[in-house]
């Protein structure tokens, strides 16, 4: 008996117009014109720009896969395989990027093709399939349409689009003046390991064109490209300018891991404590006054000595003083006033015994925590001041307090510092640019990876919204 395996495979029949798919680009359905008269294939694309290292350049672009639905835009990215001059049917020549991607013809038939990128917004078909993309077993019936399995644009609904989108390469900016510090390097290396292009931007070298029609951000004489996401690492000394740059990115519609308002509020310790109080989040009793006549009353508001006197702009434990006695507190307050410095007076939580807890919060989840212990007789447990750190298990109440504090400032990533007191956790600070080094080493967790998981979840194409049916007359 003849062996069925010896039979030649059935040819792939194509009409002049077909439902096809480009799954590697996140396009499960697209209508294509099949034209054997055209040598090169073409895909509709706009906002085309290159990114990534010169040794392996990539291109990113957007596409409206559904004709007439400009409200649905799918962002795509791919590796560039060539740049080729293509002459259209009307004789116009254009230099186009060429990418390679998988063509899904249905019924389990798929193969890699090369396709050029060009704006086909005026064309009836979003894709042209030329003869170079056809396999030897493809037969084109020029008088027929839709010989391949039928598809639907319903795949671009909200739920389905989330399930079918590939892990496309993103273009990400890290706003930092310290490109070589641990946190910045971790963000760069982790992002590049995931196939993203990560660029470190010196915040102070950004400048802005502020207008209603086309706001822009420039850097070193050039307009910055579109970024999928921005990770702010804004130093305390440049908070006003840094948050102005972030506001400009927000105006452009760029996803910012931490927003300008949250960073501004967290940096102003007086404002931050007022936000914590407004949300009824536990914190050490805090007092603030401007007049030197109120010194004794100010001290009385937070209780007896010892107490903490803290500059509003203090970071990493600098500008934080413990006054052992009331007289010492008066001296410190008078000294700060003499320098015309703004400061808080705060209750000293004795039972914390020189220890605090740093909770690392990403997307409203505590993903790691560590206990920091002060060095020697110092009451400040900051690692920059010689403190030590170790992983610690926190209670459900402490976890809830840390999450509530990060939410109060609308921060996507935050370092929440708290003290363990006799009447529950007391929030000391919400840090909008928490360092990665100490807590990654103490916890053994890859926090940069968790942050990129969240960024990739947030930066998704907008799903197609159902059109409202016209009211019947």
From TrEMBL:
- The record places domain ATP-grasp at 273-456
Keyword Endoplasmic reticulum listed? The answer is: no
* One GO MF term attached to the UniProt entry: ATP binding
Q: Where are the transmembrane segments?
A: none
Q: Enumerate the cofactors the protein uses.
A: Mg(2+); Mn(2+)
Q: Which GO terms describe its biological process?
A: SOS response; translation
InterPro entries with a match to the protein in the record: Asp_endopeptidase, ATP-grasp, ATP-grasp_RimK-type, ATP_grasp_subdomain_1, Peptidase_aspartic_dom_sf, Rimk_N, Rp_bS6_RimK/Lys_biosynth_LsyX
Keyword ATP-binding belongs to the record: yes
* Family to which this protein belongs: In the C-terminal section; belongs to the RimK family.
**What protein is this chain from?**
Probable alpha-L-glutamate ligase
